[in-house]
């Protein structure tokens, strides 16, 4: 199947395989930096940070253009110069080859380092900005930098949504398209989601069949579900490995240096999460049973809502507090690499999600159902004392007599149905609908406040007898040139979008997999419900990335990371819980959760031990079988590896070796440093493809110390108006060199005379 990106290519496609239309779609902008000078204590702090930032960008071979943004913010557009970009790409490819990530040996010519995909170009520019210039949002040196993101391709996004919304499965070529644009990290998520969606077909069919023709708590379905969950995890490992080979990311994690001396301790957060969240959930659970199944006094229909209100208010709040604590704990643990930091965050998030998502059902299955007759008498005594105290009627019974109390056998199934259907619908609405409505309301509110401010200004001018001045309008309207107005408007809209959190999408799918592995034996239709939900999820996530969130920075990845550990744990734990529930509730054919009469503690323990050992044995068998089967991708990889080694041996025997730079040795990868060395910076900045640009980014024909006023701007505008290039080249022609870019930005920050000059600047006739 042909790539959708080919539709954006043309006969004059740019070098390296990146369609020229993709580069011109955003006027050649690689990244947008949002600089909030309004948050500075004074103009001196803002101008100092801004000047340092622009100079650092130029020092590593990056061009910059500055435009005014909304609400006292600057839009800094960044583009890489071709020669420094090619050198950096070539250096990274050499590093990958030395570490075994790339099989093909890079050519000796550094100028051959042309990015093959847009994601590779953006990854390289990202490292030049963050690790070369030392610029990133949130760093202490550039505290006023709020955002850094690449721009969306509007036409490509619309075409993607139109095409993929009508398809059931994404082809391998379409996954490659996602990887080419958004990078391997996002592509792995969609590959994982599609693989999971495909896997759900089998348990959905089996579960629906068992729901129709088998009694509740079917042993056949319980065994089939546990086996399928195990097989899915092991098959995904194989699929992930094939994608690593295909996308040349196998061994990427080995490039990053890790701190082996420090091993963070995750126990304090685990204890805090279990104790705090577990206490709240268990307390609300007890209150809910007391009010709904024991209490029979006045206002019962209203009092039954108290536990729901408490859970809805306290659990998300405490989860947010614990999540913030987990992030601070991760920062305190001071991980050296992004991969290590994210892996630790995954483990912490999983603990919180496990307690909030699974504990209510586990309490029902293993506390309420088997021990309800023991627990409820204590709730009865406590409830009688509490209610009599508040009602001042100690002699009037408010609770149902114990002989009338019966355990709600439908409670367990109702909870599972809620998490399988209702919770999924709520997640979809909050994930897509709420952000969309919020963004639209904020836009309306912003338009209203701007119109109100303009009207107030006009009334004040009329009252003072002054003529209306264009300077009183918002800064971006004054500074925007007609040919850039639509583009800048789109950029400003993208700055208001939410940051895409791929970890949240992974969490959602992993939690869903856990519900199926742990509790679907209660209601076998759970896989079918998840199958329908994920058909929508596959499309809604793409819409979210394309329309509702800022474009994520393309990042390389070797798979789904530590989420795979979570899947393995849930598959193992699911085999235990399924076996335990089948033993406890096996005799009831109507799906009710009534306890079997002959349940004993030692037999339950024996069942759990047997199920665990059977799972471990089956996992070894599945892993052995999968390891003996080679996929076409792995066969091709082995063949290529053999041929490359043979070619290397032939070149060595013929005396044709290759000497690589010492700086690219495996023990000192550039990726692992927060800055480039002085030699590397000079290597990047001393040579430029444009002979009219100095190493510091200035034009030798431009006096760097000249004053920018109305006359100089008018002269520059006349020169630019004679320029015959395209819109992309014209966009980057306004501010020649980093010093001129600094002067323009400082004038906007200080609201100096430049603003009066810009409003009368001659425009290009388009």
Automatic annotation (TrEMBL):
Organism this protein belongs to: Ascosphaera apis ARSEF 7405
Segments forming domain Anoctamin alpha-beta plait: 28-143
Superkingdom assignment: Eukaryota
Descriptive protein name: Anoctamin/TMEM 16
Membrane-topology annotation of the record: Multi-pass membrane protein
Spans through the membrane: 186-206, 212-233, 266-290, 302-325, 350-371, 569-587, 599-618
Gene Ontology cellular-component terms listed: cortical endoplasmic reticulum; membrane
InterPro entries tied to this protein: Anoctamin, Anoctamin_N_fung, Anoctamin_TM
Signal peptide positions (record): none
GO function terms (MF aspect): chloride channel activity
Major site of localization recorded for this protein: membrane
Cellular localisation: Membrane
Biased composition (Basic and acidic residues): 452-467, 669-707
Alphabetically ordered keywords of this record: Membrane, Transmembrane, Transmembrane helix
Compositional bias annotation for Polar residues: 652-667
Residue span(s) of domain Anoctamin transmembrane: 178-635
Residue ranges, annotated region (Disordered): 452-475, 652-707
